[in-house]
Design goal:
It comes from Cognatishimia maritima. With 231 residues, the chain is of the alpha/beta class. The protein is built from eleven helices and eight strands. It has two domains: 124 residues, Response regulator (Rossmann fold), CATH 3.40.50; 94 residues, Arc Repressor Mutant, subunit A (Orthogonal Bundle), CATH 1.10.10.10.
Amino acid sequence: MSVSTAYAYIIDSDPGMALSLRHLFGAICDVGAEIFQDPASAVAASDGARPPVVILGRVADREDHIAALKSAGFPFVMVIDRRDSAQEAERALLAGADDVIGFPFSLRLLALRLRARVGLLDSPEGLEILQDSENWDDGAYIASRAGLTSAEAQVAHILISHAGEIVSRDELSYAIDHRPWDYGDRKFDVHVAKIRKKLTAVFGEHITVNTVRSAGYTLTIDEMGMQRLMR
């Protein structure tokens, strides 16, 4: 995917936050997102094509960068206020930010705010995604720690949302590709094998993915794994 086709630019020097936000857009909302460490790189990469959303996190001289992004034609800039203070939010809005969200926040809250402000997930299918919200933040943490690719994170998100249950290949195909699974297509087998290897490397036996013959896959999180997620 080229940068110009991204739905969102994530500008944040904190890699953990940036990866969690990319998980929200890519794995959950199924739209493109690109990560930048500073606003200047985002402006240079856009090449005149402005994405609908910019999420501006931890950067130096934030107010100056907000003004520069708005002057450059970015239509919607949301600022993450890590101090969660009225004064910081006021300064960001005075500089031209379109919205401010205080940290910490849930990924679902951010998605709901973006739905109200710019129409993200504003469809019947999007409403179904918003209602399936139990493990969004757990999924982002797991994907970030394990270094899952966007495609792997999409599969993992569905498995995590149905932890302890069997998820069929057909269910994965409808959720990700919006069509029935083609018998013999091993795409999900390949993704699951890579997910299993990466999760084992990071979480050991505490988060496991198993293939259930002729049925699908199941992801299990044991008590120790749950404690790590409740960090």
